[in-house]
Design brief:
The protein has 282 residues and is α/β, with parallel strands linked by helices. It contains 12 helices and 9 strands. Bound molecules: adenosine monophosphate (AMP). The site of adenosine monophosphate (AMP) has 17 residues, from helix 2 and strand 5.
Length: 282
């Protein structure tokens, strides 16, 4: 695996690949890699000749400075995990200056309704930060295909919209959520949880599974109530939002219409660690 820390070296590594018409896959990450990230990289390795993995903790997408400071950074073990995969990987680990130059600042985007709910509503400026860094990374890497997890489902839709708005020549591929055996969605932030909290956090996935099971037999207001009640009984978890939404617009669902696709979304705090998860309901 080749490791580069600046965009000039990255461009020169990719130059001959492009000349030879090789397909470039791209997996942007913030590091502290787990099996969820590796599933994206493996899929990209299958579908492309070379895969660029970026590890960069992007300051502009954090609305909470403590979360940014405490975000796990474990580059050596990340490298070891990537070395263990079979294929042609180019790891890019830029610093702030390489991405932003002198001023680490978001551009303002307009994703209208898509950015006003859930993550956009509760994390001010988050999607401007995400869209800014992903635009910059796409500009640097110029991938043919880029891979994003459904774990961040709203982000996946935002990126698709970004590509549509800017008419970028990249195919966005969404990949299913990878979970621990007990159902907990894998997340770099899980590394900050105690063993007891890791156990408690499985309630998030259990709740989503219950909602899916009851989706055809219960009304949406009844499901909303059920979820709120469940979290009220669980003092170690604080529900930030629960929402059932139509899967392509993320419009909040008031009732279940037969032809539409729905997903349920949860954000909850476990101690000071914020966790998100979602699940298709039909
Ligand atoms: P992050 O490092 O958290 O910014 O995530 C980098 C990419 O990995 C994003 O596209 C995430 O949606 C994806 N990802 C993170 N966790 C998972 C997971 N458990 N399953 C699938 N994809 C994931």
């Amino acid at each position: 695996m080749i490791v580069v820390t600046d965009k000039k070296s990255l461009a020169s590594q990719l130059f001959s690949q492009r000349q030879n018409d090789k397909k470039i896959g791209f997996v942007p990450t913030m590091g502290a890699l787990h099996r969820g990230h590796l599933a994206l990289v493996n899929r990209a390795l299958k579908e492309n000749d070379i895969v660029v993995v970026s590890i960069y903790v992007n300051p502009t997408q954090f609305d909470n400075q403590t979360d940014l400071q405490k975000y796990p950074r474990i580059l050596q073990s990340d490298k070891a995990l990537l070395e263990g995969l079979n294929g042609n990987i180019l790891l890019y680990t830029p610093n702030n200056e390489d991405i932003y130059g002198e001023e680490v600042r978001s551009e303002a985007f307009n994703f209208s309704e898509l950015e006003r709910k859930m993550e956009g509503k509760y994390r001010k400026g988050h999607f401007d930060g995400v869209a800014t860094v992903v635009s910059k990374l796409f500009e640097i890497v110029k991938p043919h295909r880029a891979y994003f997890g459904e774990k961040d489902f709203q982000q996946l839709l935002i990126i698709k919209e970004l590509v549509r708005m800017k008419n970028l020549p990249v195919e966005i591929i969404g990949c299913p959520i990878v979970r621990e055996e007990n159902g907990l969605a894998m997340s770099s932030r899980n590394k900050r949880l105690t063993p007891e909290q890791l156990e408690k956090a499985t309630i998030i996935h259990q709740t989503l599974s219950d909602v899916r099971e009851k989706f055809e037999s219960h009304t949406i207001p009844a499901l909303n109530e059920m979820v709120r009640e469940r979290f009220l009984q669980e003092p170690s978890l604080e529900l930030e939002y629960f929402q059932i939404a139509e899967a392509s617009t993320l419009e909040e669902a008031k009732q279940n219409k037969a032809d539409d696709q729905y997903r349920a979304f949860i954000a909850a705090y476990c101690g000071e660690v914020r966790l998100i998860d979602n699940m298709a309901l039909n």
